[in-house]
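Action item from last week, closing it out:
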Amino acid sequence: MPIKTIKQKQQFHIPYSLKCAIKMTFLGVTLTSYCFHHLDRKLEAVSAKENSSSFGERAAQVT
């Protein structure tokens, strides 16, 4: 009888820890993708500023 209860506990415990791990992984992936999205936007803005400024400098050099 005690052996059976131990097996049942293990069967319940493993899926729970798996669910927790999946949740944590999902949260981590969501956070990293969110951060990378914002970083990409910042980099795009910076590169756009650099491109516009260099374009303005080129226009000034031409004229």
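Closing note: Residues 30-62 form one domain.
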